[in-house]
Amino acid sequence: MTTTTDHTFPVHLSGAKTPTLMWAHEHDVEPAALAQLRNIAALPWVEGVRVMPDVHLGKGATVGSVIAMRDAVSPNAVGVDIGCGMIGVRTSLTADDLPDDLSSIRARIEAAIPVGFHAHGEALDPGRLRSISGTGPAEVARGADAFWARFAGLSARVSDIEGRARRQLGTLGGGNHFIELCTDTTGQVWLQLHSGSRNIGKTLAEQHVAVAKGLAHNAGLVDRELAVFLGGTPEMDAYLADLWWAQEYAARSRAVMMTLVVDAVRASFPGLELRFDEAVNVHHNYVAMEQVDGRELVVTRKGAIRAGAGDLGLIPGSMGTGSYIVRGLGNPASYWSASHGAGRRMSRTKAKKTFTLDDLAAQTAGVECRKDAGVLDEIPAAYKDLDQVVAAQSDLVEVVARLTTLLCVKG
Asked: What is the pLDDT of residues 110-138, one digit of tens each?
């Protein structure tokens, strides 16, 4: 357990039918999310649930939850944005190298990477992209042809959107997705971005949720949004095949975007020879088969990262509030997991009703970013305090770097 000045974690969730450990106090979690966690813990296939400090209400399963099941998986325990995650790269730039006005760098990034509902005019050829190191073709080009050849094996219901999926690879999307330029406490510049599997991942997830809801073994569930597939069935095999593909799509999309961001930054500093470290690319909405207490279980992380011993991870805050680069401590009590970010403390609708554009401008002061009504629901005050979220999991991760956001691109 971790003891700080005012709390000890983990704590047990009261009323849970299977062991549910929380890195948050019940009085700090919305009642609807607690009820959702108890519903999850009551599923007959669940071995245990672990709850991260960024926990908040989700569809079916709670965001910030790690669920271990025996021969079963719930699509909504992953979420509709299959493979959503983070990628980060440390650069050789320092704060002293940066201009006072970062708007031109932001413009270059926005010109290179479509955001919101937009896509590339035509599918990008990863073979024509430079590697992040700049010494050869992009790493993401490896295996690209074999990856797309697997599209034909996906659910037949997505066969007509392959072209759209190809054009959306390497695009940001909207909501809480972002691209940022940050500095750490030593003044080193980092690049990072948050994105998922775009429309193709959402479409696949929703189709499988609909199939699961119609299966007889899910008829008596308290919440049909927690419908599961059972191991050894054609339905689970089909879901996992589509899911593995969508997870890879998301990781490849982030890698493509990072090469485009790196190119935009290089073009912004023509007089400097820049270096970029190897990227850290991690999912926080995904499924993995893992050994837990000597048994192979299906582990879903929805709004959580793997934090095995030595694993590098990224825990971002809200728009413009910075991030943490962390290293996992390999704590089995959390199923080797940590939070995926700060986590929302209020809904998007409530945020829009509560805050004004003046509030948004004040809370993002000093950050080169959008400050219009289209991103008001992403205002920092709609999220939990990132520093407190990270402090609550000091037995799960160690801090490698604290990043301060200077530039943020959002859809």
From this structure: 999 999 999 999 999 988 898 887 777 88
Largest CA distance in the chain: 66
Distances (CA, A) of 140 to 257, 264, 327: 10, 18, 24
pLDDT at 137: 82
Enumerate residues 6+ apart whose C-beta is below 8 A from 37. Answer: 13, 16, 20, 49, 51, 55, 62, 65
Residues marked as catalytic: 340
SS3 230: strand
- Among candidates 409, 140, 94, 96, which has minimal Cα distance to 264? 409
Residues with Cβ within 8 Å of residue 381, at least 6 apart in sequence = 351, 354, 355, 359, 363
What was the pLDDT predicted at 225?
96
Residues in the chain with pLDDT values less than 50: 1-6
Per-residue pLDDT at 320: 85
Q: What region, left, alpha or beta, does residue 366 occupy, with left being phi > 0 and alpha being psi -120 to 50 degrees?
A: left
Residue 7's pLDDT is 52
In angstroms, the CA 243 to CA 247 distance is 6
Quick check: 257 and 170 in contact, CB under 8 A? yes
pLDDT at 132: 87
Question: Which ranges of 214-328 would DSSP assign to H, the alpha helix?
Answer: 234-268
Cβ distance 366 to 322 under 8 Å? no
What backbone torsions phi and psi does residue 240 show, to the nearest 5 degrees? -65, -40
What is the predicted pLDDT for the residue at 138?
A: 85
Beta strands 295-302; 285-292: pairing state: antiparallel
pTM for the full model?
A: 0.95
Name the CA radius of gyration of the chain, rounded. Answer: 21
Sign of the dihedral defined by the CA atoms of residues 398, 403, 404, 408, in that order = negative
Contact call for residues 140 and 252 (beta carbons, < 8 A): yes
3-state SS, residue 392: coil
pLDDT for the residue numbered 6:
44
